[in-house]
Known about the structure:
It contains 14 helices and no strands. By secondary structure, it is mainly alpha-helical.
Amino acid sequence: xxxxxxxxxxxxxxxxxxxxxxxxxxxxxxxxxxxxxxxxxxxxxxxxxxxxxxxxxxxxxxxxxxxxxxxxxxxxxxxxxxxxxxxxxxxxxxxxxxxxxxxxxxxxxxxxxxxxxxxxxxxxxxxxxxxxxxxxxxxxxxxxxxxxxxxxxxxxxxxxxxxxxxxxxxxxxxxxxxxxxxxxxxxxxxxxxxxxxxxxxxxxxxxxxxxxxxxxxxxxxxxxxxxxxxxxxxxxxxxxxxxxxxxxx
Length: 249
C-alpha cells in the first residue's frame, strides 16, 4: 500500500509540473467540451453531442506520441462512460438499464485498438447513451396527458406558448390540465414553461455567444430585465454572471 501511494505522489507531482509548464488552453477547452457533451446528452441533442465528442477527440489527438495518444483516448472514453452513469444517476436516480448501457459500451470499446475506431466510436457512444436517456423525463409520468404536455413544451420553447394554446393542442379543458400539471409537476403551467425556457437559456449562455437580450427575445420573454429576474430566481445569479462563471469552470 505504501509503495502504491508513493507511486501516486510521484506521478501526481509530475503531472502538476507538466501542467505548470505547458499552456493550459487545451485542457480548459477539453473540460468545457466535456461539460457541453454531457449537457447535450441529457437534453437529447444528438447532433451537438457528436460535435462535442469530436472536439474532445481532436484535442486528445494532438498528443504527438502514437502509443500515448491511443492510451489517452481509451482512458478518456472510459472516463466519459463513467461520467455518464454518474450523471444519469444524479438526474434520474439509479437504473439498471443505465448500468447495463455503460457496461455494454465499455465491453464494445475494449476491443478498439486503432484511432479510427475511436473516431467512428463517437456515433456508438452518443447513440448508446441517448438510447438510455431518451424521453426519460416523460417516461417518469404515467399519465399520457402529462407526457404529451411535456413534449409540447419542449418542442415549442421558441414559439408563442401559453395555457390556452396548450389546452387547444391537448384537447382537454383548462381546469383539467392545470390540475394535472400542478399535481404531477408541482407548479402551474406558466411557471413550468418559464422554468423550461430558463433551462434552455442556460444552455444557450454556455454554448453560444448570443447577447443576453437576444436570448431573452428568442425565448419569448417580454423584456431582458424580466428575463434576468426569472433567471436569477432559478440559478441565483444574473445571466451574465452565469455565462462568466461557466466559462471559467
